[in-house]
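Notebook p. 47: complex prediction with phosphoric acid mono(formamide)ester.
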Amino acid sequence: MALSQKNLLGLRGVSAADISEILNTADLMKVILASNNKKTPHLQGKTILTVFYENSTRTRLSFELASKYMGGVAANMSASGSSVAKGESLVDTARTLDRMASDVLILRHPMTGAPHLMAKHVRASVINAGDGTNEHPTQALLDMFTMKEKLGGIAGLQVAIIGDVTHSRVARSNLWGLTTMGARVTFAGPSTLLPPELEATGCRVTECVDDAVREADVVMGLRIQLERQQKGLFPSVREYHKFFGLTPERVALAKKGALVMHPGPMNRGVEISSIVADGGDSSQYRSVIDEQVTNGVAVRMALLFLLTRYNG
Ligand code: CP
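Predicted complex, structure tokens below:
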């Protein structure tokens, strides 16, 4: 059990073997999570720092819980309340954290490439917890874990990713991860929120959400960033829901047993209707959004375990 890389800065270029190793290890971690005693010694003696320059509920808490369940020392640094608010640079912050003997640094930052920069200045392994509009690799890993768990595998799946692709780091990490694992990805949404460079990746791109959803094994909604509406990038919220939202009628076009996924946080009634979101795995719409959250802890446990075993 080992990865071929020290850091997880993105899924672009990560091998299928490494992704499989993380997902298979997460299977074991999920068994531990479901047991009465979640405590393991996997991270005993290790220090895990979460460094968040942007808000987070799922990613930050799941990394902290994962660290604690496995016996590691976990601490958090947020931009507000730290010396970042006094103007300390990212590099100086990295050098400071490096001197605190951390083994893994988990960074969320609004700037694309910030984790790559941090990785140049620390000895610890660095995990990208979301950088600008670039990547959110652990979200895509938990999404792939959920697909594998519910549908038995990833290769050959048709995955429709719907919404604000332009600003979505979740979409980009899923693109790289899913295609490496043999899935076929279709992106759909308003033309203003579909970046032109998507076509070059070989994925299907369409403005017609119905077309994307039809025959999909997985329908993934993306969070619409409501602040974009002011810039005229999409019509009114009501119209967005009508033309691009995951409504019961639209989701019904997907394959029987298709999964409905969303990374959270959701804008209910905008990119997804509550009837679809709250359906649960056993419902007509097969929403696995709650399960994605649980799987996020298992996947992050697996990743911390594997990265702290990396020895070059
Ligand atoms: N999906 C996701 O990254 O959620 P948080 O912003 O709550 O971490």
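Notes: DSSP finds eleven helices and nine strands in the chain. Residues 56-59, 130, 136, 139, 263-265 surround phosphoric acid mono(formamide)ester (CB under 6 Å).
Next step: compare against the earlier run before touching the bench.
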